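Tip: read the tokens left to right.
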């Protein structure tokens, strides 16, 4: 397919649009409100919108923005406290094929997918890594309270559940959650910087959440640490990070999982009461066999806690696989006998490489599959800080 150039450059598919000039104007005004100067703006009759922006520091940013209108109209069979955005470019017949977003391979320009509430003066930033290719023809929703909070504070980050839909059998996010950033016009450049970082580092939803929260106070690129952001967040050197990635074959979903396993392994090897730690790297197996000093062998599965704390103030952790086997919906959920302990890494909600340990014998079971663990587990007071304090059922002993 031949794509017309935008800003004299090829950015993939360009769509002709009508009735959206106000979105184009909104974005231009947002650049100015956030301290930039528009050097170039693409034709308002085309989407995406390309803006060449210069900052006071003489830094220049190219923004390729896919804007979609947000409305507060009442939608049949939907809750009344929601706003709605519709992903619609091109003809309805074209929605059946893939619509990848344009990317700058050099990473100089940043691609963004945003919903715009022109009346409320709020933008909702969607995760460009998760929403590429664009699922044309579908709607996305957000709670009105979240949007209103973004309008009042200028920058608001939240996590929403991501579920399978009519166009996909699996959730868009492998963690079942996605991070949404709501912000006002004067924070557009901050959001562009966040998106550029998140895209280049392929941050998953929990790390994107943490990075977005760090921007809440108006952090600038000049105030960021000179070390690579992953070195700072993971408390490892770049060489150690690469060694972790190279040594684990299950990191296609997220590097963060491998880093959590690495920290857990080091912690367990230093823990009093632990005699030996064997890390497993086999599909369909738990992560560690840990032999305790008293002879018990505990099968340990490492999981990352959600960055969002429950309404009752407790942490929570997702305990399920990224996908199910064909014709076997129960296979996505772990059997009760699959492992003895879940080690929940608390980095996402706390910024610290700490763990809480919970016995599977004390966890909730799935409502529809009683021999399987429920996918979301609350980290209750029964979870402990030391592995040797975990209560367990039918422990395995060395012969």
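Filled-in amino acids:
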């Amino acid at each position: 397919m031949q794509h017309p150039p935008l800003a004299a450059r090829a950015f993939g598919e360009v769509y002709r649009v009508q009735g959206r000039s106000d979105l184009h104007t909104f974005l231009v005004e947002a650049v100015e409100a956030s301290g930039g100067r528009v050097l170039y703006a693409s034709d308002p009759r085309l989407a995406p919108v390309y803006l060449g922006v210069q900052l006071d520091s003489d830094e220049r940013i190219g923004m390729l923005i896919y804007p979609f209108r947000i409305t507060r109209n009442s939608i049949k069979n939907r809750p009344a406290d929601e706003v709605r955005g519709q992903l619609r470019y091109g003809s309805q017949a074209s929605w059946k094929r893939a619509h990848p977003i344009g990317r700058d391979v050099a990473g100089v320009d940043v691609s963004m997918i945003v919903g715009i509430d022109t009346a409320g003066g709020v933008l909702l930033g969607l995760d460009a890594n998760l929403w590429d290719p664009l699922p044309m023809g579908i709607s996305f929703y957000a709670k009105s309270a979240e949007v209103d909070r973004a309008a009042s504070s200028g920058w608001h980050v939240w996590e929403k559940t991501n579920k399978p839909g009519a166009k996909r059998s699996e959730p868009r996010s492998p963690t079942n959650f996605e991070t949404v950033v709501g912000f006002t016009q004067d924070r557009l450049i901050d959001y562009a910087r966040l998106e550029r970082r998140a895209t280049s580092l392929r941050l998953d939803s929990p790390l994107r959440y943490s990075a977005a929260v760090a921007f809440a106070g108006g952090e600038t690129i000049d105030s960021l640490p000179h070390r690579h952001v992953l070195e700072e967040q993971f408390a490892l050197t770049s060489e150690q990070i690469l060694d972790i990635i190279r040594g684990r074959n299950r990191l296609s979903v997220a590097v963060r999982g491998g880093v959590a396993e690495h920290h857990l392994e080091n912690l367990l090897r230093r823990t009093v009461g632990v005699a030996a730690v064997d890390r497993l790297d086999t599909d369909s197996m738990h992560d560690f066999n840990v032999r305790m000093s008293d002879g018990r062998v505990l099968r340990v599965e490492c999981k990352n806690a959600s960055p969002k704390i429950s309404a009752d103030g407790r942490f929570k952790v997702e305990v399920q696989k990224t996908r199910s086997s064909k014709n076997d919906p129960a296979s996505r959920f772990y059997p009760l006998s699959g492992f003895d302990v879940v080690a929940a890494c608390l980095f996402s909600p706390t910024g610290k490489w700490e763990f809480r340990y919970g016995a599977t014998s004390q966890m909730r079971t799935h409502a529809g599959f009683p021999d399987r663990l429920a996918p979301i587990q609350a980290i209750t007071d029964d979870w402990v800080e030391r592995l040797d304090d975990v209560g367990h059922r039918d422990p395995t002993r060395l012969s």
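The chain has two domains: 15-224, 233-397. The radius of gyration is 23 Å.
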